[in-house]
Amino acid sequence: MQHRIRRPIVAGNWKMNGNAALVGEMQQALESQQFENVSVVVCPPLTYLGTMQSDTFSLGAQNTSDKASGAYTGETSLSMLQECAVEYVIVGHSERREYYAENDQVVAAKVAAVLEAGLTPIFCIGESEQVRDAGKLFEFLASQIDAVLNIIGINAFANVVIAYEPIWAIGTGKTATPEQAQEVHAFIRQHIAKQNGEIAEKMQILYGGSVNGGNAQSIFSQPDVDGGLVGGASLKPNDFITICLAANELR
Length: 251
Ligand code: PEP
Hints:
11 helices, alpha/beta, 251 residues, binds phosphoenolpyruvate, eight-stranded parallel β-barrel
């Protein structure tokens, strides 16, 4: 039975962590579960995408090129990801924005390319502590959303998943409170609703930032939180399963 209007998603972002042993361990652990009411997505490093296949979970890539092919050393195209049965692509993660100079324009081009290929972008946005402390939280998030919205148009947002990841909560153990997450998720939905209420209502908005087995249930139970993008805890099969089950059991 489907419990919520929007089906929750839990996506595990391994970042540059893990190894072949973890691939096997995670696959086996997830396949011992039944996730009827949540879409589980595993985003391992690129080299493991070809070896991970399952009916229990979907595969996601952590990055993509926006180009189709050609002389782009070190890059991977969407058609190559599709050959590995990838369904989701994380775009605009704060680590890519910070360490690989991916600005709003680069992120918009990648979101557009992922949609064009028929895959689902997990489009990440989120503010630094300085932006929040300066009282510019909503202005900043609106500008990150609008940079993509202005390129792809509102109708394309029907196929976009947004991940709200406050930078100060990523990998820090400092999670947003459920109320803070709900406040921002409601803002994001209202911002999209200004252009199309129906699309906003159906759009899945994930929370990311130090989600773990202990806090997932309270964060996910907020009405505008539709699951999570999980970093550190997605490397531990038992913790990741606890988080997935918290989303699976939402009413
Ligand atoms: C992330 O990097 O997307 C993330 C949310 O990391 P963590 O869960 O480790 O904070």
